Amino acid sequence: MIFIKLNTVVTGNSLVSLTFHLFNLHGLIEHFQLDTMKLRRFLVMVQEDYHSQNPYHNAVHAADVTQAMHCYLKEPKLSKSLTPWDVLLSLVAAATHDLDHPGVNQPFLIKTNHYLATLYKNTSVLENHHWRSAVGLLRESGLFAHMSLENRQLMESQIGDLILATDISQQNEYLSMFRSHLDRGDLCLENANHRHFILQMALKCADICNPCRTWELSKQWSEKVTEEFFHQGDIEKKYHLGVSPLCDRQTETIANIQIGFMTYLVEPLFGEWARFSNTRLSQTMLGHLGLNKASWKGVQREQSGSGDDVDPAFEEMDSDILPQEPRLS
């Protein structure tokens, strides 16, 4: 797996190394006159605020999503229209999109009366926390202290817009808007608001693109996110909290979870993304997605003797039922 191997090579610093490289590659350090020591300090703080004990939502996942976001930014339709500001927002949001993730989902935080659920009034609890944590580190690092207050506030707000878009409970809303724009053919990337919306969709794709990778990579990430789900379920059983859907290792399987995830979330999103950006990359991702789904159905048939079971949790598409962040990229 590319980022697990990278993480080993750079001694656990994949997020710092990759993001610093991408800032340099895109010319952001020079364009925004960034202090490289402050940039590295900010990235180190970000990396350290991810929980390494999480099987899935950790700094390696953040690096993986950041790399995917870079690939989408380089797609012809986007790259010719994006400004340095757009690229800066995108990379910071990708690197911080799961910052300080506790390894459990929103329903768990709500039913345990966690302070974050109270603070954010049970609404996009994790995403709000990731965003606010990112803002805190940006301010502490002083990375953009040389910019005007107005620009810093705008940046913080727009980074929030990107991170909040990754709330899986809002998937249908964003997908419906995206599909409507594509049906009408009215997306204009010279329009800053339209570009920002596409960046939201790009980050959503980067966040759940794992089923669009090769089987070897996709399977390993799938195992990691399921391990995290099942760990939550074990805690819920221990404290008699009622096991959340997709989190019971006695009744769920990786294959069932993945087939439902691909059917109800990944396929619709990447189908529309390919309408927007019909490139070799998009077609390759859809090809891997189809092959991976077929592979999981093969695993499912071996386990159950049938290939038609789809986890009912995904059919509900309800924020109280779905894990808040089944993020597989």
TrEMBL record:
It catalyses: 3',5'-cyclic AMP + H2O = AMP + H(+). GO terms for biological process: signal transduction. Pfam families: PDEase_I. Zn(2+) 2 binds at D98. AMP binds at H57, N58, A59, V60, H61, D98, D207, Q258. Keywords: cAMP, Hydrolase, Metal-binding. Gene3D superfamilies: 3'5'-cyclic nucleotide phosphodiesterase, catalytic domain. One of its GO terms (molecular function) is metal ion binding. SMART domains: HDc. Residues 308-319 have a biased composition (Acidic residues). Zn(2+) 1 binds at H61, H97, D98, D207. CDD domains: HDc. The keyword Metal-binding applies. Residues 297-329 are annotated as: Disordered. Transmembrane segments: none annotated. Its cofactor is a divalent metal cation. The active site is at H57 (proton donor). Residues 1-303 form the PDEase domain. It is an enzyme of class 3 (hydrolase). Its EC number is 3.1.4.53. Pathway: Purine metabolism; 3',5'-cyclic AMP degradation; AMP from 3',5'-cyclic AMP: step 1/1. Belongs to the cyclic nucleotide phosphodiesterase family. PDE7 subfamily. This is 3',5'-cyclic-AMP phosphodiesterase. It comes from Buteo japonicus.
